[in-house]
User: Which sequence fits this backbone?
């Protein structure tokens, strides 16, 4: 191989060699190029000095040939400079001469283009616009000229083309150009091969693998398994009961495919209080009270949203059918009710009209009503949901004034539910009862000379009716004839309100020991009803009369003279004191007492009869005038008495009066006794 040599006499010598020559490779013949004898060069102590630290060349002083002493790498020495030179100095002694040697190192294609890495990862948004450019790190080729990087090649694919951008300095940059829209859901990663090739002969190349990861765009909305769902739920299901689990999927990835569930805003607040949905699992569960009577079907609107930006959403509806259970007792509503019923209401009188209902459905909502059998009422079913409460027999307020009627309403559920309604019915009074005295007659015993206006007796009547019908008034009745009964109001008075009977005058037993009168009591009804009773009034005697002398005729506490012969025999009746007492009973029982006598041994008086007799034979020495002090007492308490002084004159011969006494004594005494008895 011939290398280029340039020689400047006395000054500079230039050689041209390729890089990477082997050790000992010929560079040039300095002796020849200088035109110097080899012997002279050898004697001149020829030396080659390098400007660099490395001694890339050496010279054989015997031959004058310069050879490669070490590996020469142009790229290491000069990089990307288009021309590369090594400068040497040639030193000769005797005389001293210096020559400059310039060795140009020519490039050979000893380096392929090299990418920074064998794998390149790109992330491209799947919604990137067509024509978008994505620069790739360029390959580096330390060679220069035609040996440097010349072009790039891209493996065949559907979405990308290659554009090579050249700079003014000759650098070439590859760019991926998007020619067809990306779809991550169709292909998430595109694998490409980029080849860098230089212009050497033969050309050298290298490859890098490009993995294009298509970044997800939120271009897909969540999709439910079904557009609508059906579910059944028993009413009164406890909180937490699972209704249904929904499933929505989103083919996007990451947050764009992360689905969250929620109840749509289209749902009412009431529905939101009943159902809740788990935002991650899509489970719809019971949260509030599920009541068939409130709604038999619930339609829940559910939305599924992804977490992309902007979010995308999808909706579905869940129809929940509620199954009824018998959880509502019947209701009884009074549409008409008379709490007060007249006791003379005939059987069949309507007392109340009831409307029954049950919020449950089917058999659970059918209602039957019934009453206890012991009441004078009955239920009549007017039509499906209406009953009338009627009287079933005659009523009597006085027997029972109030009824608490329990109406039992039961549904036909299993188990049945029932509700009891109590109607308090009061019987209104009519004046169907006359007042009745507690006694058919009254007996009153009152002492004569009684205190005026003192209550003698109270007549009392009762009336089982109410109010005005039982408001009683007492009055005295007159009877035809004479005496107190003809007009009892002369003697007595009666309080019309309470029946107290009082005396208006003191009674006198001796005039009126007994009389009777009638009392009438009337109620305040219209018309009024009344009844009567008889009061028997007995006046009892008081010792208010002193005994009165009937014989001998004399005034009270007077003196009577009597003549008897001294020949009167012992125990002879000389006279009889006759007294009467207008009182009765013990008050009229009389006793006769000889309280004082001139000679107590001469006369005696019979205690009960009042007969005065001699007790012994009259003697001459007995005083001719005998004075007897007699007291007549009744048996009252305290007793009352009358006294009389009897002067007995003792005579020798029987006086005319005494003879008359003897002749007519018995007859006279009997006459007086008869008067006393009367």
Assistant:
């Amino acid at each position: 191989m011939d290398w280029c040599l340039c020689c400047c006499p006395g000054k500079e010598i230039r050689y041209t060699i390729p890089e990477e020559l082997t050790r000992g490779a010929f560079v040039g013949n300095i002796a020849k190029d200088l035109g110097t004898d080899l012997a002279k060069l050898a004697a001149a102590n020829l030396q080659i000095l390098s400007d660099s630290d490395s001694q890339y060349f050496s010279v054989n002083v015997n031959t004058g040939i310069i050879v490669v002493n070490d590996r020469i790498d142009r790229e290491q020495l000069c990089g990307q400079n288009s021309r590369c030179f090594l400068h040497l100095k040639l030193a000769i002694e005797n005389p001293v001469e210096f020559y400059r040697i310039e060795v140009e190192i020519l490039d050979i294609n000893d380096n392929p283009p090299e990418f920074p890495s064998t794998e390149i990862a790109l992330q491209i948004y799947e919604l990137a616009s067509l024509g978008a450019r994505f620069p790739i790190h360029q390959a580096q080729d330390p060679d220069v000229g035609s040996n440097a990087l010349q072009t790039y090649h891209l493996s065949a694919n559907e979405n990308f083309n290659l554009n090579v951008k050249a700079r003014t300095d000759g650098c070439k940059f590859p760019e991926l150009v998007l020619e067809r829209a990306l779809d991550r859901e169709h292909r998430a990663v595109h694998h490409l091969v980029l080849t860098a090739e230089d212009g050497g002969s033969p050309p050298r190349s290298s490859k890098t693998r490009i993995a294009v990861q298509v970044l997800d765009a939120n271009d897909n909305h969540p999709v439910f398994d079904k557009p609508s769902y059906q579910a059944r739920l028993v009413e009164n299901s406890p909180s937490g009961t699972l209704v249904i689990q929904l499933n929505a999927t989103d083919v996007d990835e990451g947050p764009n495919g992360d689905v969250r569930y929620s109840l749509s805003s289209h749902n009412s607040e009431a529905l939101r209080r009943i159902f809740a949905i788990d935002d991650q699992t899509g489970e719809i569960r019971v949260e509030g009270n599920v009541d068939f009577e409130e709604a038999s079907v619930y339609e829940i609107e559910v939305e599924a949203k992804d977490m992309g930006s902007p979010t995308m959403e999808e909706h579905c509806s869940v129809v929940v059918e509620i199954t009824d259970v018998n959880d509502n007792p019947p209701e009884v509503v009074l549409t008409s009710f008379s709490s007060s019923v007249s006791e003379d209401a005939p059987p069949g009188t309507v007392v109340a009209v009831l409307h029954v209902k049950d919020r449950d459905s089917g058999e659970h909502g059918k209602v039957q009503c019934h009453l206890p059998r012991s009441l004078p009422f009955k239920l009549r079913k007017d039509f499906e949901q209406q009953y009338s409460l009627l009287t079933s027999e005659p009523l009597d307020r006085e027997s029972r004034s109030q009824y608490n009627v329990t109406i039992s309403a039961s549904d036909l559920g299993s188990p049945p539910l029932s509700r009891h309604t109590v109607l308090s019915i009061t019987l209104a009074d009519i004046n169907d009862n006359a007042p009745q005295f507690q006694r058919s007659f009254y007996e009153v015993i009152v002492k004569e000379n009684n205190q005026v206006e003192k209550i003698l007796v109270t007549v009392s009547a009762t009336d089982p009716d109410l109010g005005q019908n039982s408001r009683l008034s007492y009055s005295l009745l007159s009877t035809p004839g004479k005496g107190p009964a003809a007009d009892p109001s002369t003697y007595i008075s009666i309080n019309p309100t309470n029946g107290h009977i009082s005396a208006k005058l003191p009674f006198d037993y001796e005039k009126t020991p007994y009389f009777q009168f009638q009392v009438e009591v009337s109620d305040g009804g219209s018309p009024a009803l009344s009844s009567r009773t008889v009061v028997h009034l007995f006046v009892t005697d008081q010792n208010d009369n002193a005994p009165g002398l009937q014989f001998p005729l004399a005034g009270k506490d007077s003196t009577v003279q009597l003549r008897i012969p001294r020949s009167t025999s012992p125990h002879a009746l000389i006279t009889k004191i006759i007294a009467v007492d207008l009182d009765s009973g013990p008050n009229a029982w009389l006793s006769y007492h000889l309280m004082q006598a001139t000679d107590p041994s001469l006369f005696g008086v019979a205690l009960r009869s009042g007969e005065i007799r001699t007790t012994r034979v009259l003697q001459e020495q007995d005083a001719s005038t005998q004075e007897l002090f007699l007291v007549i007492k009744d048996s009252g308490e305290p007793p009352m008495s009358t006294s009389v002084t009897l002067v007995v004159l003792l005579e020798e011969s029987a006086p005319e009066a005494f003879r008359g006494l003897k002749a007519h004594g018995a007859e006279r005494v009997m006459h007086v006794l008869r008067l006393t008895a009367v």
Q: What stands out?
A: Residues 656-677 form the longest helix (22 residues).
